[in-house]
Design goal:
The complex is a heterodimer of chains A (418) and B (140). Chain A has 418 residues and is mainly alpha-helical. Helix content of chain A is 73%, strand content 0%. Chain A has a domain of 107 residues. Chain A has 19 helices and no strands. In chain A, helix 6 packs across helix 9. The longest helix of chain A has 27 residues. In chain A, 42% of the residues are buried. The two termini of chain B are 40 Å apart. Chain B is α+β, with helices and mostly antiparallel strands and 140 residues long. Chain B is flat and about 45 Å long. Chain B has one domain: Alpha-Beta Plaits. In chain B, strand 3 and strand 4 form a beta hairpin. Classes of the chains: A mainly alpha (418), B alpha+beta (140). At the A-B interface, helix 1, helix 10 and helix 19 of A face helix 3 and helix 5 of B.
């Protein structure tokens, strides 16, 4: 094998092992920055050793042993040895053999990786920092990739990550998996970060840097890993279900000219049935764990109503109306209320939609929000109140900042007659 | 990217010789690793081709051919669908697989087509559908 090929193979092995490596090392040195450096050191050692010896049978354990040895060397070299470090060093020497690591790695690794996720999404960090750190430490993206994904520049992202690591270092975290009440709040932060990553990719427009749509796949991967690490948490399955089902439509929601295709107009034959099936299974798990009323599970259940309908006409709008009733309770938001009104109009007729939409018409958050008058216009149109419908469509067109959407709305206004 | 990973058949698999307990165990552990890493989307083993059928196409003609089929090395005995970052990652994961057969065997990795790979081929169709639904909505 050519040297460059060997290098590529080694780097691929490293990429697969990296997150678990950093997780284990962070637990040991109690510092994610240092853990990341030690992992990198292990890669450098592997790049010099493996071309001679071949890739070892258990590369993960090998890399971990190399990194731990490097950590001990570091502790020893340091003349100002703190007592704590000496102790850690002694503990390490006892267990640094590859066989030992191999034996213990599989058992602890899940907890360590989960702990790293909790740490990267710690509330002491800003949301942007949590996202960047999660992608860097667990996703293995480079700072350049993260910068491109978030339409930022590399220096900004690099600085954000450095500062986040410093904040974590200074806060003296225990690198433990939070228990009881703290766990729920901390888990919510992890889920929020993963969903933010997903949405950043989902709302990337066609023709943009490919790294942006790839964020969806990365978020799904994180979700799939997380359900294995926290198999008793219904909302983890709820989020995974939501992402899998949303992602199933990725190929169908953009027209060849780049224009977004609304859900009801999509070619459903292009929806990814494998992802839909995975999503439905995850949703079932969430509900089986008693989490049917979690905000992610409810959103997934709504997405599932569309996924199950082979034609738009088959959509179970009555069920969707009921799900929106519950969602508006657990996650109150004017946007949820608007969607609820749409579901009601489809399930029970335009008058039902109108009754609900009038209640939210004055919500400050939806002022100048085109979808509100657009929905109202649609209800009025279907109720045969054409003059009022026309007025609403024109109003919506006035709010819209998207040329294609504006054109569509003006077309609907024109269809109302003069 | 998505890949299909195919375990090629051998004389043994075609003869219906079932894997040993050890191999089943090792495979189970390997599958678990794939799931834990968020790589595995689907996968299954296939019965020998003796239980399979082929439909041969020739213009309007359709001929059903019963298994078993001769070219053992070209047959598939099992498959996975994986989500990986690139082919190098898929290769690395395949290397970690226990030998799925008693004797020498092969696993083949093939990337799945993605929407982007079709380029212009899908466009007229989709565009037409798009326009049609727009008209229908406007009529409503």
């Amino acid at each position: 094998m050519a040297a460059s090929e060997t290098h590529q193979a080694i780097e691929t092995v490293f990429r697969i092992e990296r997150a678990r490596l950093i997780a284990g090392l962070a637990q040991m040195v109690r510092d994610v920055g240092q853990a990341e450096e030690l992992a990198q050191d292990a890669l450098v050692i592997a790049l010099s050793e493996w071309p001679k010896t071949g890739v070892p049978k258990n590369p993960g354990a090998w890399l971990m042993a190399a990194a731990k040895r490097r950590a001990i060397d570091g502790f020893r070299r340091n003349k100002m040895l703190a007592r704590k470090h000496a102790e850690i060093g002694r503990d390490l020497e006892d267990e640094v053999g590859v066989e030992n690591i191999e034996a213990t790695m599989d058992d602890d690794i899940g907890d360590e990786l989960l702990s790293l996720m909790f740490t990267a999404c710690h509330p002491v960090l800003s949301t942007e920092a949590r996202v960047a750190l999660t992608l860097r430490l667990i996703g293995g993206l480079t700072t350049d990739e993260i910068a491109r994904a978030f339409l930022s520049n590399e220096a900004t992202i690099a600085q954000r990550i450095v500062r986040a690591k410093r904040t974590l270092g200074a806060s003296g975290l225990a690198f433990e998996i939070p228990r009881a009440q703290a766990r729920t709040a901390r888990l919510a932060s992890v889920l929020e970060v993963i969903f933010l990553i997903f949405n950043e990719g989902y709302f990337a427009t066609a023709g943009e840097d490919l790294i942006r749509p790839a964020l969806c796949a990365e978020a799904q991967r994180l979700g799939r890993i997380l359900v294995r690490l926290a198999p008793d948490e219904p909302e983890v399955f709820g989020l995974l279900a939501l992402m899998e089902i949303q992602a199933s439509r990725l190929g169908a929601r953009t027209a060849p000219d780049g224009a977004p295709v609304p859900l009801t107009e999509q070619n459903r034959a292009r929806w990814d049935q494998l992802l839909i099936r995975r999503g439905l299974v995850a949703l079932e798990r969430a509900e089986g764990l008693g989490g049917a009323d979690g905000p992610y599970a409810l959103q997934a259940a709504l997405a599932a109503c569309h996924a199950r309908a082979h034609r738009v006409e088959d959509t179970d709008w009555t069920r969707m109306a009921a799900l929106y009733d519950r969602l508006s309770q657990v996650m109150p938001s004017p946007v949820v209320d608007l969607n609820r009104a749409v579901a009601y109009s489809m399930a029970f007729g335009p008058e039902a939609g109108l009754a609900l939409v009038d209640e939210i018409a004055e919500a400050a958050a939806l002022r100048n929000y085109a979808p509100l008058p657009a929905a109202k216009g649609d209800f009025l149109f279907r109720a045969g109140r054409l003059a009022e419908a026309r007025e609403q469509f024109e109003r919506a067109a006035g709010f819209s900042r998207n040329a294609r959407e504006k054109e569509f709305l003006l077309g609907r206004a024109a269809a109302c007659g003069g | 990217m998505r890949v299909m990973v195919m375990v090629k058949a051998t004389k043994d698999s075609e003869a219906g010789i079932m894997p040993s307990t050890e191999l089943l165990e090792a495979m189970g552990k390997y599958n678990e690793e794939l799931v834990n890493a968020g790589v595995m989307l689907a996968g299954d083993g296939l019965h020998p081709s003796a239980k399979g059928k082929r439909v041969a196409f020739d213009g309007p003609g359709r001929t059903v051919i019963d298994g078993p089929f001769a070219e053992t090395r070209e047959l598939v005995a099992g498959f996975w669908i994986w989500e990986v970052k690139d082919m190098a990652e898929a290769v690395e994961w395949v290397k970690r697989c226990p030998n799925p057969m008693l004797g020498p065997s092969e696993i083949e990795i093939r990337p799945l087509f993605e929407a982007a790979d079709f380029g212009e081929a899908l466009t007229p169709d989709v565009a037409e559908l798009h326009d049609r639904t727009r008209e229908r909505l406007a009529d409503r």
